[in-house]
Amino acid sequence: MIVRKLTDIRKSDHNVKSDGWESARLLRKDDGMGFSYHVTTMYAGKELKMHYQNHLEAVLVLKGKGTIEDLGTGETHQLAAGTMYALNDHDRHIVRPETDILTVCVFNPPVTGREVHDENGAYPAEADMVRTAELTS
C-alpha cells in the first residue's frame, strides 16, 4: 500500500515547478502502478501550449476556470470545476487559465517525477531521458 500526503510531496523534489504551472507527483513510474498521478496548478494569465507525444493524459478540474483549445480541430472548451478532459490522441492543445486552475492528472505511461515540458510542450519518452542522463554523466 502506498500512502502519501500532498503537503509532504509539496515540500519534496517530486513537486515540480515550471513556467505557468506547478505539479505534485504523488504516484510515479517507480511506484509500479502503470500510471502516474499528479495534483497540478496552472496559473492564471498563462498560456500553456502542450503536446504530449509520448503520454496520454486525463485531467479533472477541481477548482478554477479557463479554456482548452484543441489545436487539431480549432475547438475551444470551457474549463471549470467538475470538467474532465482526456488527451486520448496525443492532442496538441493550449490551456488558458483565467484563474488559477487546480487539477488532478493521470499520465500513461507514468512519468518518473522530474519531467518538465520540452520545446514542443511534451514530456520526453523514457528512452530519451535515459540517453540524456547517459550523455550528461
List the keywords.
mainly beta; 137 residues; 2 helices; 10 strands; six-stranded antiparallel β-sheet
Give structural notes.
The structure is a single chain. The chain is mainly β and about 140 residues long. About 10% of the residues lie in helices and about 45% in strands. It is built from 2 helices and 10 strands, in the order αββββββββββα. The protein has helices spanning about 5-10, 125-135, and strands at about 15-20, 20-25, 35-40, 50, 55-65, 65-70, 75-80, 85, 90-95, 100-110. The strands form 2 sheets. A 6-stranded antiparallel beta sheet has the order 1-2-3-10-5-8. Strands 4-9-6-7 form a 4-stranded antiparallel beta sheet, with no helix packed on it. The longest helix has 11 residues, at about 125-135. The radius of gyration is 15 Å and the shape is globular. The chain starts with 5 loop residues before the first helix and ends with a helix. Residues about 125-135 have low confidence and may be disordered.
- SS summary, helix count: 2
Low-pLDDT ranges: 127-137
What's the pLDDT, averaged over the residues? Answer: 87
Based on the structure, what is the oligomeric state of the protein chains?
single chain
Distance between the termini: 34 Å
Shape: globular
Instruction: Assign the structural class, choosing from mainly alpha, mainly beta, alpha/beta, alpha+beta, or little secondary structure.
Output: mainly beta
The topology string of helices and strands comes to HEEEEEEEEEEH
Helical coverage, percent range: 10-25%
With strands numbered from the N-terminus, the spatial order across the biggest sheet is 1-2-3-10-5-8
Strand content: 35-45%
